Amino acid sequence: MDFSLTDQSPERIDTPCLVIAVPAEGPRSGAAGILDEAMDGALQKLCASGDIDTGYRRTTLIHQPAGIAAQRLLVVGCGELGRLDRVRFDGLCMAAGQFLRKHAVTEACVSLHQLEVEDLDEPWRVRHAAVALDRANYVYTATKPPEDDAPHPLTAAVFAGGAELQPALDEARAIAAGYRRARELGNLPANICNPAYLAQQAQALAERHDAVEVETLGRAEMAELGMDALLGVAQGSENDPRLIVLHYRGADVDLPPVVLVGKGITFDSGGLSIKPREHMDQMKFDMCGAAAVIGAFEACVRLALPINLISVVAAAENMPDGKAYRPGDVITSMSGKTIEILNTDAEGRLVLCDALTYCERFEPAALIDVATLTGACVIALGHHASGLMSHHDDLAEELQAAGRAAVDRAWRLPIWDDYQEQLKTPFADMKNIGGMPAGSITAGCFLGRFTEDQRWAHLDIAGSAWKWGATEGATGRPVGLLVHFLMAHAGRATG
Ligand code: BES
Ligand code: MN
Ligand code: ZN
Hints:
By secondary structure, the protein is an alpha/beta fold. The protein contains 14 helices and 19 strands.
């Protein structure tokens, strides 16, 4: 989506659709106040008569409004102004974006960012509004072209404001591109998006940007390194696994990199511990962690952040087969620690443990893995928050703050030693499942055993990365959280 700025007064802006927010008390101030005056008090009257619904997220479209240059005026209700926090602001921007998409408005001028939101400054507000509009106007077309009569999504948004807002819009463009990349990869079916496909995408990214390099490890290189946990998961699939390592150099080589690691199970059938048939299709989304670390990487490159960043994708397919790994197998991970496989469906932690061990060589400033790891996380937090686990309070706080700044929130779960008990087995250093209680936490504890000397955090995005139901699809989360974390790491203000 194209973002630009205009410093014209709202009544003079000639646009197919002008988008404003009006609080429950009516168009008293800001753009709404100015427009109401130009419209001879018509807005005020429409609000009073109830023809404009000023309830939170309600939308009213006025055609050919008299007295102003815009061809249409979209009024988004924001309810009681006193309660406009960042989450409600996000909901408001999304409502506007969805309305525009449904009504085939391809070009609009937006003033939502002129609302007061907590103590957040205008650059934050315009950046957030721009990203939200873009997210609301993403349409998946890779395997189903839009029908001829389908409405066209918004392609250009003009924001009221001067050049001082340009850097915020540049950031928005990069963040939105990151979200789009993650969603597109997430939504692609597993017969297209397999480990080799993810590697090609990373390769293409490296070809587009000078500051990016990519290395890809196949079965042979992984065997050489002793990555038998990752290889064990991939063993039952015809699609060879890949360890994809994307490097972005935006700072001096001596500066320790941030390292992001994504779970890239391009399809999770469960393996021999096969999943029930209902909803198995949803396990094409099991590479959304990989999609997010690629999307956040792309955003960082576009932003040219003065940091070093490495995104690692552990890509494999989990399938049942004569060659597949079995329950009861004991495998030796790259770290040398042995793992008894008690459920081949707890495969994410197996590909991640070797990827995390591999990352030690980068001596990361922070090591963050992102994974659709446990159904238990969906039970615990639903679709609203990503699960966050870390032994490092400062890192956890930085990630939570980044999630708040992006309105892409994470909530912390404890990974106390008390839970380690659940991973004990007489046959190996640990087993790969911890039983029913605290399933997300024991998965986090498992990963913690491979990151003992690292400044590490784990994000379980099983609930946040995709939605089911009528609007099923990848959300692109937690690209927002990750990019805000990277921007803060680079010393940029994030809100
Ligand atoms: N990819 C799944 C987790 C998942 C489930 C994500 C539902 C999104 C929605 C993961 O590999 C898995 O199967 N986990 C098991 C772990 C269990 C066997 C310990 C689970 O959550 O049931
Ligand atoms: Mn699984
Ligand atoms: Zn999985």
